[in-house]
Amino acid sequence: MSYAISGECCSDASCVAVCPMNCIHPSPGEPRFGAGASLFIDPRTCIDCGACADICPVDAAKPVDQSAPEDVERNAAYYADREPLDGTDLDAWQAPAYQTWGGGPRRVLVVGAGPAGMYATRELLLRTTAEVTLVDRLAEVGGLARFGVAPDHPRTRQIISTFERIAEHPRVRWRPGTDAAGLASGYDAVIHAVGAYQSRRLGIPGEEAACAAEDFVAWYNDRPGAVLPVELTGPRAVVVGNGNVALDLARVLLSDETRLAQMELRDDVRRTLAASGIREVVLLGRRGPEEAAYTASALDELSAFPGAQLRFNARPTRWSEAGLELDTGETIAAGNLFTAIGFEGKPVAGLPFDAERGVVPNVRGAVVDRPGQYVAGWIKRGARGGIGINKACAQETVLTMLATS
Ligand SMILES: Cc1cc2nc3c(=O)[nH]c(=O)nc-3n(C[C@H](O)[C@H](O)[C@H](O)COP(=O)(O)OP(=O)(O)OC[C@H]3O[C@@H](n4cnc5c(N)ncnc54)[C@H](O)[C@@H]3O)c2cc1C
Known about the structure:
Helix content: 25-40%
CATH superfamily of the largest domain: NAD(P)-binding Rossmann-like Domain
CATH architecture of the largest domain: 3-Layer(aba) Sandwich
Structural class: alpha/beta
Bound molecules: flavin-adenine dinucleotide
Number of domains: 3
C-alpha cells in the first residue's frame, strides 16, 4: 500500500521536507511547483511510512485504501512518464538553489549511520566536494530505521536500501562496526548523529522487573546481542506511554500467529510472542488524551486490535506481581509491565551536554563552544519525530556547517 494526495492539497510542501524517499513532487525548486493545485505521491517508491499524512496541515495525504479512486489515479498518472527517483539519485536531487562548499575537497567525519547520519551524508555529497568518513558502532546502516521500526511495517524499512546506496557512494568511506571514540582528529568537521535512544525511567518501586521499550524492541528486531529481559505472561500487559512506540509494542504483543507469520522476525522471537498468551494490552497515559503523542495514522492502525485499551490520567506508583498500582488507588492486574515513556541521549565524549533535555546543546546544528563540531537527528533536537524529519534536520546542520566553515 502507498499514500495518495487528494485535491485538498494546499501545496505548502511540509510533506516534501519529511518524506524519507523524495517521492512527493513537484517540490519547491522544481519547474512545475506552484503551477498546479496539488502535489503527488509516487506510488512506486512510497514506503508507506505515513510521515506526509502526519504533517499535512489539511489532511490531504491518506493511505490509498482510504483515498478516493480518482485521487489514487491522479497521483499515479503524474508519474506515468517519469522514472522513479530515490534518495541516491544525486543528480536528480540537485536543485538550482544548492550551493557548493568552496575550497576543494575536505574531510568530514559523520558519526552514526542512522537516518540523521545518512541524510547528513547525502547533503554533504550534494552540496560539497568533501570526502565523507561514515562510522557506526553497528555493522549495518539504518540505526532505528533498522532496529526500531516495528516488524509489521516492512515498507517503512525499505528506506534502509536507500541508505545502503548512499554508503556505497565513491566519496563515502563507510566503516561499519566502528566506535567514534578516538576518531575525531584529522577531520575538518565532525557531524555527531549518534541518536538519543536510552529509555526514560518511571522511577517507581518494582520497575527493575518491568521491560523498557528499548530492550523489548531490540529483542524483537534482532539487534545484535539483545535478549528478552522478562518472561512474557498473559493474559494482560500494561504499556505505560502515549507515543507511537507504545502503540508499536501493543500491536506486536497482540498479534496472533497469522499476523506474526507475516512479520520479519527470528523464529524463536515469533514462537515466544505467539506463546505469550497476552490478549489484552492496557495503554496507560499519565496525562490526558489531549497530550497524547501518537500520530493519527498509528492510532488508526491500533483500532484493528480489540484487545488494546487506552486509559489516561493515571500515574503508576508501584509494580509488583499483583500488577500496576496507580495514584488513583486502583491496581491493574497484569503479568507484564512495559515502559515506553520516551528516550533521551547520552553525553558524547568531548562535547557539552544538556542533561535535562538529553541533547548536545547547539545552534542550528553547530555545537555550542566547539568549532568544527556539529550534531544532527535525535541527539540534536531530542528523541521525537519520525525518520523523514531527520532529512530537514540534517539539511539544516549541513547548511550551518557551510555558513560557519
Ligand atoms: C522503537 C522505535 C520505532 C520507530 N519507528 C518509526 C517508524 O515506524 N517510522 C518513523 O518514521 N520513525 C520511527 N521511529 C523514529 C526514527 O527511528 C527516528 O526518527 C530516527 O531513527 C532518529 O535518527 P537518528 O539518526 O538521530 O538516530 P538513530 O536511528 O538512533 O541512529 C544513531 C546511530 O548512531 C550510532 N551510534 C551511536 N553512538 C555511536 C558511537 N559512539 N560510535 C559510532 N556509532 C554510534 C548507533 O549505532 C545508530 O546506528 C522510531 C523510533 C523508535 C525508538
